Amino acid sequence: MSPFAPGAAARSGTYHLRLRPARRLSDQRGRAYLRTVDTLRNPTGPLPPSTYWRRRVLLLGVLLLVVVGVVWACTRNSGAEQKPTGALSTPSDLPTIPSDTATPTPTPTPTPTVSGSGTPTGTASTSAARPTSPKPSTSNGKVLCPVSDLRVSVRSDQKFYAPKQKPKFTLILVNVHKTSCYVDLGSQALGVTVFSGKDRVWSTMDCAKGPDSRLHKLPSGGVYTANATWDLVRSVKGCAKTTVTAKPGYYVLDGQVGKAKPKDRAVFVLQKN
Fold it and tell me: Is 183:218 a contact under the CB 8 Å cutoff?
């Protein structure tokens, strides 16, 4: 039976309990806290108090720099992720120049062909057709492809050319008419032209050989690719002889198939020595 149970005092006598004062422990903690606060306010040690204060200020400054550095790094990474997609990140990202007469339909993926020099040469292939409904015209009983159903694009094989390196150009023609039709691929209908600003520097049509007009049947969805190489010598209409060579700088490549023009013109650079 517990000594504190009823009746225990009657059998064993009266118990006297000693209770430790509750305030002693709390008073000790309070005095320790006051000593700590006093030490923070008035540093003690073998060195002058100003030395300890300078150390504390230096430590706070280092911690502040660390926090600022972390915030700056997070802000910088967040800004890098929001970089505009249209920015030119490298010198090789040369822009294309819109053509004034181009249609707004995207350029299809070209089909590789055998390259040539001088007069453009090309081959035809077949891909998926895109149905449209313009009413085509005819020539000698042959249905001509509507200009609005012809997609033309041009490109150079490189963006930058070393001195005396001859650029190679490609023209891609796609027929998106719903049926097969004929397109004029004659020497005065199909070609590529190089400009320097408004200066017409060179064109395959200046010295092109073959008939001026040549109708070629292109299936619905068919792709025709023509290639040409520029020898860096200027040309003039009528193919008059000239020895003037192109100077280093930016040039624009344009093309045409009859009245059909590319949506964008390609830009390339002839570099200095």
Answer: yes
- Which residue in this structure is represented by tokens 């997070």? 74
pTM assigned to the model: 0.53
Taking a C-beta distance cutoff of 8 angstroms, is the pair 163, 272 a contact?
A: yes
Distance, in Å, from the CA atom of 257 to the CA atom of 223, rounded to the nearest integer, reads 13
CA pseudo-torsion sign 166, 200, 170, 104: positive
Q: Provide the b/e sequence for 90-100 (b: ≥16 CB within 10 Å).
A: eeeebebeebe
Reported as a single tens digit per residue, the pLDDT across 144-171 is 999 999 999 999 999 999 999 999 999 9
Contacts of 144 (CB under 8 A, 6+ apart): 136, 137, 138, 181, 182, 183, 184, 215
